[in-house]
UniProtKB/TrEMBL annotation:
Residue segments, region Disordered: 157-238
Comp. bias (Polar residues): 227-238
Pfam (any one): DUF724
Protein name: Agenet domain-containing protein
Natural source organism: Brassica campestris
Entry superkingdom: Eukaryota
Length: 451
């Protein structure tokens, strides 16, 4: 079998081997990329993807060393049964010992990448070694139970996808990275089968779980120190308790803020908003807490600011009630923004904002109807213009028709006169015939008269 040199360059598919326990001897497909800082991989662990012509002609029989596609990688094993029903083969693995049934589309003859060339194993030596391994698998009392099937393939197998592997080669030009592709080529993977890294993954999961529990315990202790929690909610997680507490503070101001304003309520101008109609129908309890952040020299102005905001609030309510259908959408937006600014100081803006949103929706519907009306009016104008044009054309045609009718009448009269002349001339012609006959008769009589 001929071999062909192959190079590993950026963007090409390669196969990566691993020295990790449980993965030795297996190759996983990846892509070479550049400019990504990931873990380094020795070039000796990289090789191109074997071209199909290197193994397509090999007949799989008992003792053949093969690469079997299992768990997103190619694992080296030995065929121990030439062929089962449905084109399946029994393949033996010696590290760790296992026997698995494969479809032929998931098998390829084993080839080695040596000195940048694909070198097929010596068939005789490989088959002898394979037979020994096959015998060892069959005779070994510790051989695991045969698992079948491991995969279902709906299309001819092509180079399979790898698990998550990413590396920056130390001796090659490109960057090696790969992403798993689930069910590549129609494969449905069975998670009950190797690769044999499951114990290590379980151990890692346990370590991560213990670490996560420690972090949660530390977080819980930290939250308990920072936040007091009632006994009725002690079974909740710290994050949930803090979130509930924050929500409670945001939704309902503390009693201290409800009872004590950041100023003494002395101004006589409070009577101005209290006299408005909206004060009776929509009383407010603003806390004005942001006024506490005012500079010291403006402390005496807190009450004035509060009075102004209260007057503004009820003034805005009156503006909302006084809105007209022809008012622009910008007026509604401005009122809405003003209410939002007052909400920070504890004003309940739910009702006016709801009304404004309703009116905005009506304004949008009004604008839509107006646009449809304008569109209809444009069509009416176009049709009216067309109607006028047609009326003008009809008038022109009618004039032409009258002229043609006049010409028709003249022609009819001329025709009748011509017909009359024809009749008269025909009658004259008959008289001429009679005269001709009379002359001929007289001529004959004259000629035949006796002497």
């Amino acid at each position: 079998m001929s071999t062909e040199n192959q190079t590993m360059v950026k963007g090409s598919e390669v196969e990566v081997s691993s020295q990790e326990e449980g993965l030795k001897g297996a190759y996983f497909t990846a892509l070479l990329k550049e400019n990504t800082t990931l873990s380094a991989v020795q070039q000796s662990l990289l090789r191109p993807v074997p071209p199909e012509e290197e193994y397509a002609g090999v007949v799989l029989e008992e003792g053949t060393v093969v690469d079997a596609y299992l768990r997103d990688g190619w694992w080296t094993g030995v065929v121990i049964n030439k062929k089962l029903e449905d084109n399946n083969f029994l393949v033996c693995f010696d590290s760790p010992p296992d026997i698995i049934v494969f479809e032929k589309t998931n098998l390829r003859a084993h080839v080695d990448w040596t000195d940048s060339k694909w070198v097929p194993p010596d068939l005789k030596a490989a088959r002898e070694l394979g037979n020994k391994k096959a015998d060892a698998c069959v005779m070994n009392n510790e051989t695991p139970q045969v698992i079948t099937p491991i995969a279902k393939v709906s299309a001819p197998v092509v180079t399979p996808s790898p698990p998550v592997i990413a590396a920056t080669p130390t001796e090659t030009e490109g960057q090696l990275s790969s992403e798993p592709r689930s069910k590549q080529n129609g494969l449905e993977k069975n998670d009950s089968i190797p690769p044999h890294k499951m114990p290590e993954e379980e151990e890692t999961s346990q370590v991560l779980s213990r670490k996560r529990r420690r972090e949660e315990e530390q977080q819980q202790h930290s939250d308990v120190n920072e936040t007091e929690v009632s006994s009725s909610s002690s079974h909740q997680t710290p994050n949930v308790m803090m979130m509930n507490s924050a929500a409670s503070v945001e939704e309902t101001p503390p009693p201290a803020l409800l009872k004590a304003l950041p100023f003494a309520k002395r101004s006589p101008y409070w009577k101005s908003p209290e006299a408005k109609e909206g004060y009776k129908t929509m009383p407010q309890r603003p806390h004005f807490s942001p006024l506490l952040a005012a500079a010291a020299e403006y402390v005496n102005h807190r009450e004035w600011s509060a009075v102004g905001m209260t007057v503004s609030f009820y003034g805005f309510l009156e503006q909302v009630k006084g809105l007209k259908p022809h008012d622009s959408l910008s007026v509604l937006c401005s009122l809405s923004e003003s209410f939002v600014e007052l909400e920070e100081y504890g004003f309940d803006i739910g009702a006016p904002q709801s009304r404004i949103r309703k009116m905005m929706s009506l304004k949008e519907e009004q604008a839509k109807i107006a646009e449809e009306k304008q569109c209809l009016e444009r069509k009416v104008d176009e049709d009216e213009k067309r109607s006028r044009e047609l009326a003008e054309e009809m008038a022109v045609l009618k004039g032409k028709m009258l002229e043609l009718q006049r010409q028709e009448a003249v022609a009819r009269e001329e025709k009748e006169a011509a017909d009359k002349r024809v009749v008269e001339m025909k009658a004259s012609g008959e008289r001429f015939e009679q005269k001709m006959e009379d002359v001929e008769l007289e001529f004959l009589e004259t000629a035949s008269a006796p002497w």
